[in-house]
Automatic annotation (TrEMBL):
Name under which the protein is recorded: Hypoxanthine-guanine phosphoribosyltransferase
Keyword terms, alphabetized: Glycosyltransferase, Transferase
GO CC terms of this entry: cytosol
PANTHER family assigned: HYPOXANTHINE PHOSPHORIBOSYLTRANSFERASE, HYPOXANTHINE-GUANINE PHOSPHORIBOSYLTRANSFERASE
UniProt lineage: Bacteria, Pseudomonadati, Pseudomonadota, Gammaproteobacteria, Oceanospirillales
GO-annotated biological processes: GMP salvage; guanine salvage; hypoxanthine metabolic process; IMP salvage
Residue ranges occupied by any Phosphoribosyltransferase domain in the UniProt entry: 17-169
The EC number(s) this enzyme carries: 2.4.2.8
Domain of life: Bacteria
CDD domains linked to this entry: PRTases_typeI
Catalytic activity: IMP + diphosphate = hypoxanthine + 5-phospho-alpha-D-ribose 1-diphosphate; GMP + diphosphate = guanine + 5-phospho-alpha-D-ribose 1-diphosphate
GO molecular function: guanine phosphoribosyltransferase activity; hypoxanthine phosphoribosyltransferase activity; magnesium ion binding
């Protein structure tokens, strides 16, 4: 299927910027401090959840100045759609995580099914402690569990479809230098 790049450009042009680069970078730095305080002596395995986690994980890692191992998992629930479906594992964690502290890093906690499934998988693999960090927590009452929160999060957003800083619109604009809400959603 060919992509209408004029449409893709128009989506960014018409979107509302909810957070700009400076606000996001400050939030990431604060997350880095909070994570450092809690995990700096735990030799954690840090997993980026691809694809959305690629920007936040790369930026967050530079604020974590202590020994850790970084790797990735790939799971998707939305593909290029605006609403989520079944979790589709593309790449599962490969390291031995028995007895380890694991930190899962993703772009967004929306309904939370994605993070919940990855956390459950790591616990089944014998991780001693599994913690979660997301750039954005979306505020609504459709969470997979009541009061579901990430252990660390940077920003809260209203209940709209967003893109930028790793989050996509139809596979595009993960590179957008801010967090934008889609017009009309
Ligand atoms: O909290 P949830 O409702 O489960 O949604 C959050 C997940 O949705 C997005 O991934 P997506 O499945 O779109 O794949 P992507 O990372 O490749 O964009 C996002 O990156 C999170 O992993
Ligand atoms: N791009 C994007 N992906 C998501 N996955 C879950 N919620 C969202 C969202 O608001 N935007």
């Amino acid at each position: 299927m060919s992509v209408d790049l004029d449409h893709i450009q128009q989506v960014l042009d018409e979107a509302d910027c909810l957070y700009n680069e400076q606000q996001i970078e400050e939030a990431i730095k604060s997350m880095g401090s909070a994570i450092t305080e809690q995990l700096s002596n735990s030799n954690p395995l840090v997993y980026c959840v691809m694809n959305g986690g690629m920007v936040i994980t790369g930026k967050l890692l530079t604020h974590l100045q202590f020994p850790l191992e970084a790797s990735y998992v790939h799971a998707t629930r939305y593909r290029d759609q605006l609403t989520g479906g079944r979790l589709d594992w593309r790449v599962r964690p490969s390291q031995d995580m028995k007895g380890r502290t694991v930190l899962i890093v993703d772009d967004i906690l929306d309904e939370g099914h994605t993070l919940d499934a990855i956390v459950d998988f790591c616990k089944e693999q014998g991780a001693e402690q599994v913690m979660t960090a997301v750039l954005v927590d979306k505020l609504h009452n459709r969470k997979a569990r009541p009061d579901l929160k990430a252990d660390f999060y940077g920003l809260e957003i209203e209940d709209r479809y967003i893109f930028g800083y790793g989050l996509d619109y139809q596979g595009y604009w993960r590179n957008a230098n801010g967090i934008f809400a889609l017009k009309g959603h």
